[in-house]
Amino acid sequence: MPPGYPEHTNATRLYGPQITGDTNELYTRIRQEHGPVAPVLLDGDIPAWFVLGYREIQHVTSNSQLFARDCRRWNLWDHIPSDWPLLPYVGWTPSVMFAEGEEHRRRAGALGDALDALDRAELVTICNEIAEELVETFAEDGTAELISQYAHQIPAYVVARIFGLPKSDIPQLVRDVLDSLDTAEGAAAAHQRVHDRLHQLVADRQQRRRRDVPSRLLDHPAGLTFDEIVIDLLVVMAAAQAPTGNWIGNTLRLMFTDDTFSTTVQGGRSSATEALNEVLWKQTPTQNFIGRWATQRCELAGRRIQAGDLLVLGFAAANTDPQVQPGQPTGSGENRAQMSFGGGEHGCPFPAPELARIIATSAIEVLLDHLPDVELSVAEDELEWRPSVWMRGLFELPVQFTPAPPTT
Ligand code: HEM
């Protein structure tokens, strides 16, 4: 154990087999044992603080003077090997993600404005079109694997369209985006190709503006540089893809397996909205997030936090904090006070949560409209969660349905 972490001798490991099972149960156990701020060990037994309390997360995210985002503050860099598996999440890049203060406001504000300029009705049309095209690729088969063939493709397709990429370039870009976020070999090369394609896109828009996100960023009064735009477009692509893809996948799983939702699955519109909301409370896609770094010595829920300590934000745990929902069997309904989009300056920026909801709603409605008798083709307990402490999502969601007649 690195020196300076006396409270971590009995810390819970936040990696390994326990995070593939029922993580909500794990969080309940950690909360019972340690309270709302717990000592945990990340991969390789690297110590960190796990913030599980709803109020404590609110306090941390809204207090950016004390809990800041620039990872270069970390007091454990000397202990982190160059092949540490979590480096992609904490390795510093000159992007909006790690910017702070005025610099962050300038860049996040420009991103928010560029995204907010999207016509919502046009976005719905784009989402429906993409979802329909994807359904068509498997509708005649009578079976599909909805995570790889559908849920994870949709957000990347939508973002590529709102970035203004020509339709012919999008399938390759989507393949690269998915590969770049994978842990498999080839991820770095795929990431480089995505970077290069976005670099070229911004260069094209410098010559000639269009009605798209890169053009709006170039024209924004914040005066972003070329490199800032490229890297922040990359961040948006990555930030949208996995969470929204898993939101779609987790919601479909819930609709296929939970009677409360499955009874209305065929006519699915109102139940899709409810299921999407329920998932944000119970199986939220970004279940934990790295994080914030303490700028100075302080106390949090009785814990002594040192300057440079890493705090992992436990959004899923906060959503099931008994202090917030005492004895409530279901936390969803119309209640949208969940923590699933983070909070404060570095929370998922307006209007991204609204755009994600449009994308996810359309994905579910189009699927149910086109394949009204779609159902799981395996038993519920055969569905496997990916062993990621950050993302809550399934490996596969195999389904069956009446095949559509062949198109002539
Ligand atoms: C169109 C889809 C989305 C876009 C464009 C998007 C974009 C972003 C961006 C740019 C950030 C970094 C903000 C910053 O550091 O200032 C971010 C953070 C975040 N996003 Fe999203 N996002 C999307 C969907 C989602 C979804 C579906 C979820 C989960 C349900 C989600 C959860 C989060 C969380 C938890 C953070 C970190 C919040 C924090 O640190 O407090 N996002 N998102």
TrEMBL record:
What domain of life does the native source organism fall in?
Bacteria
Query: Which stretches are annotated as coiled coil?
Result: none
Q: Which SUPFAM superfamilies match?
A: Cytochrome P450 (SSF48264)
Q: Which InterPro entries match?
A: Cyt_P450_sf (IPR036396)
- Give the residue range of the signal peptide: none
According to its UniProt record, which protein family does this protein belong to?
A: Belongs to the cytochrome P450 family.
Give the protein name, as stated in the record.
Answer: Cytochrome P450
